[in-house]
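User: Good morning. I'm curious how S-adenosyl-L-homocysteine would be positioned relative to this chain. Could you predict the structure with it bound?
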Amino acid sequence: MEDELEDLVPPEEYVVRWSFTGRCSDELSINKGDQLMVHAKITPEWWWAELRGVFGYVPASYLHHGVIEEEDEEDEEEDAWQDEEYYLTYGTLNLHLEMLSDKSRTEAYRRVIVNNSASLHRKVVMDLGCGTGIMSLFCAQLAQPAAVYAVEASSMVQHTRELVKQNACEEVVTVLQGRAEDIQLPEQVDVLVSEWMGNCLLFEFMVESVLLARDRWLREGGMMWPSSAALTLVPCQARRYYAEKMAFWENPYGLDFTPLQPLALEEFFAKPKFSHLMEPGDRLAPPADVICLDMHTLQVADLEEMQGEFQFHLEKSGVFHGFTAWFSVYFKSLEEGGAPVELNTGPDSEPTHWKQTLFMLDEPVSVNAADRIGGSIILRRNPTWRRHLTVTLHWDINGRTQEVGTKSFPMWR
Ligand code: SAH
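Assistant: Good morning! Here's the predicted structure, ligand included:
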């Protein structure tokens, strides 16, 4: 692609005003102050650029022509919620395609609507962060609610309106443009449905918007979907990943590159690995839920720090490389005694686009069947960057003081 585009315009040099983390392989991750070459201004929002030989899309508003004056820098202090970047990425199809193609996710929500279609009759629903409007359309087509308010802050909302019309749902679904925190609804709602979950459940902290909307718009005794959520953890092996990123340096082409291992540790194991698919034989113990959230009672202040304890009884001998985490969410039935629906993103369920998250220890530890790995996990929200958190793991083996470890993983800041 770059070759064709290079013919069109001469590349121009730009400076990065704010850091941006690419969310997929064709978006560049850039840091404040980086100088990059813009090869094509594909849309007013997204430009095709090159940084140190790597090509990808970058958000145009994050770039500045020429040197950044100090004054500018003070004026343009980065938003702690990074909303500009956040909503920009939801304004393009990339993430929506990824989410809609995720059948386990989308069909779990559809199942909730189908199972509750009788009880949804004449109910008022809020779909927070409706994106393309999929959940609202499910409600309107599979049940007979009185009204559905579909709220979306990104520019995708313009298309959502069209999709609602195209599918003949405009009588029931009202699309509202704006942040859920800022919009006004004409009435309170009976059900608040949202797909707010991020990596390791909380990353991006969209859950805060959901809690604030609950307190403002959900009527007394109304239903939250999801109704609860759990974070699950398991000690695991990760032989393949360890071999690829760390053991690799031991003897490439017959040479000793081990002096690069501290660098590899920093580069590959300091942060969690998103999009990890834990292999069936990798778990060392039965997984355990370490943090559980009740969406009806959870408070925004609770999100600042969450802690869970674990005690894993190993079921086999092997190498303890780290911990794998994933989440599940549960949707209560509107009917008394009705069966709940579960969306489980773990390794024993249909894979989802979240996959699992791997936390690598600095050094692998040999363990035996019948050993116990005990400890705790703390999720600490970043006090400055409100969409980020740090996960800290403490562990010991068989309660021995000489076999203990602790490691903190920023996600991402
Ligand atoms: N419900 C859609 C999209 C889920 S992704 C689906 O299931 O396919 C989350 C969406 O919520 C994104 O489109 C994002 O722009 C939107 N969003 C996140 N926080 C929001 C807020 N506070 N107010 C309005 N929209 C929000």
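The first helix runs from residue 2 to 6. The two ends are 32 Å apart (CA to CA).
Let me know if you'd like a different ligand tried.
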